[in-house]
Fold this protein.
Amino acid sequence: GCKAINSGGGAITVLTSDGMTRSPCVSFETLERAGAAKLWLDSEIGQKTMKDAFDSTSGYARLQHMKTALAGTNLYIRFKTTTGDAMGMNMISKGVEHALNVMSTEGGFEDMNIVTVSGNFCIDKKPAAMNWIDGRGKGIVAEAIIPADVVKSVLKSDVDALVELNVAKNLIGSAMAGSIGGFNAHAANIVAAIFLATGQDPAQVVESANCITTM
């Protein structure tokens, strides 16, 4: 595959999004209070207060926005942040904890109970529609143009056969299996190899290998 891509002139990539996530779960005694907290977080003043608090904890991490979801009296808050060149989970967790403390003291939610700093609405190391749709980390689109003669000489196939295979396997086959973000042949192999070679957390391959192959 690499030989074929290089023979065609290499690949071009575009960074489409950049935002690592952490989603604490907080709870309240009543739905009314949980709903009030959600409305405050979704408001302009709530977003600004939390951003100011979060950003004050790091020279690199910057809160982009928050997405909230209510399940009974449990409130899930998905912080999406930039983290420089680091994955940045430690700096994000530090910022989240401080922001929640400010929410409690300055936002008027002293009755809030912090259940967990990570409530799986992030969501890391598990297949999830949330990550497939909204992204987690860096989103990248890559393009490689491989001439027909290279497909034949290097990949031992032809363009029409590859296009047919991609539709039948990567698109229709994955849809039949109910795949979430798995519309590819083996993107996980490539991501896992890079993560292991660069010392990244291999468990994050689960969401990092989400991609769709088009031809």
The radius of gyration is 21 Å. Residues 19-131 form a domain with the Alpha-Beta Plaits fold (CATH 3.30.70.420). Residues 112 and 210 are 35 Å apart (CA to CA). Strands lie at 11-22, 25-27, 62-71, 74-82, 113-116, 137-144, 182-183, 211-212.
